[in-house]
Amino acid sequence: MKVVLLTGLSGSGKSVAIRALEDANFYCVDNLPPPLISAVLKRLDDQGHTQVAIAVDARSGKDIVDVPKVLVDLKNQGVDARPIFLDSDDDTLATRYSESRRRHPMSAQLGDQATVQECVAAERKALAPLKDLSNCIDTTALHPNTLRKWILDAVDSAKSRLTLVFETFGFKKGLPTDAELVFDVRCLSNPYYDKALRPLTGRDAPVIEFIEQDTRSAELLNDIEQYLRKWLPNYLMEQRSYVTVAIGCTGGQHRSVYIAETLAKRLGSAPLAEIDHILIRHRTLG
Q1: For 58-192, where are the E strands, in sequence order?
Q2: 115/81 Cα distance (integer angstroms)
Q3: DSSP assigned state of 239
Q4: Are residues 92 and 128 located together in one domain of the fold?
Q5: Distance separating alpha carbons of residues 80 and 86, to the nearest angstrom
């Protein structure tokens, strides 16, 4: 059985994600109390379900602290359990709730006088242990269709000990919150200032040729690759299943895309024993 355990902050896109999984033929259960997860999964397994998605969030109250143990127990039983944590920055979450005019779920615990910002802060603190164990996706400024694709990419990948995610972004839009490692490649020559290259991306041959003409690009690629090969194995010691490496340039369209795509090819052609799967996410390209 493949089990997706979907958690995250209220307003971060869990409804979009659960609908995407439902469309992908997952049996979906929303807001299931953590103490019931094992029993429900056993029942669904007996009924022949092979793909299940369970959404759990801070509405579970104090029971949310049981989720890490539930996750470990499932993995010890041989279940292909995939925790996914959706996050957004505080301003985005507050704006989404202000626009929807809905009460934040944490207000039931904090009281009706609590502000949205206070609710967000309390929920972030309560869910922090889950974020550390999960494949985290930062949905800040992310189009719903892009989120759907990233969710399906995460659950379609083969079961692995460690999934490496390369995520590109633009510094002018801020750092993604889901990154364990961040590399800044703005030191390379910028194709944006060539009007012929401006509408293209780091996956297009003319842009690739432009960047590779900058002799620093090869050295930078080698340095990042060597760093990853040396230090990624240590993440397994922390019981992590996912490591997100963010590559940033000014707009997230040219240099970062080229570097991420090239690193993925290099590590894919001569993989580390600890890494079984590599994903690429481009925040700006969609």
Answers
A1: 80-87, 135-138, 163-170, 181-184
A2: 35
A3: T
A4: yes
A5: 19
Q: What is the rounded CA–CA span in Å between residue 172 and residue 218?
A: 25
pTM above 0.85, yes or no: no
Domain with 32, as residue range(s), is 2-156
Residue 166's identity, in one-letter code, is: F
C-alpha R_g of the chain: 20
Nearest to 84 by CA among 144, 14, 34, 20: 14
* Residues 137-145, mean pLDDT to the nearest whole number: 90
Tokens of 130: 């889950």
* Average pLDDT, integer, range 7-11: 89
Task: Tell me the per-residue pLDDT of 66-111, one tens digit each, with 9 for 90 and over.
Answer: 788 888 888 888 888 889 999 999 888 888 777 666 777 787 777 7
Q: What does pLDDT average to over the chain?
A: 88
Same domain, 150 and 174: no
Q: 133 and 172 share a domain?
A: no
Residues 31 and 60 in one domain: yes
Q: Which residue has the higher pLDDT, 275 or 16?
A: 16
For 101-157, where are the alpha helices, taking DSSP H only?
A: 107-110, 116-133, 144-156
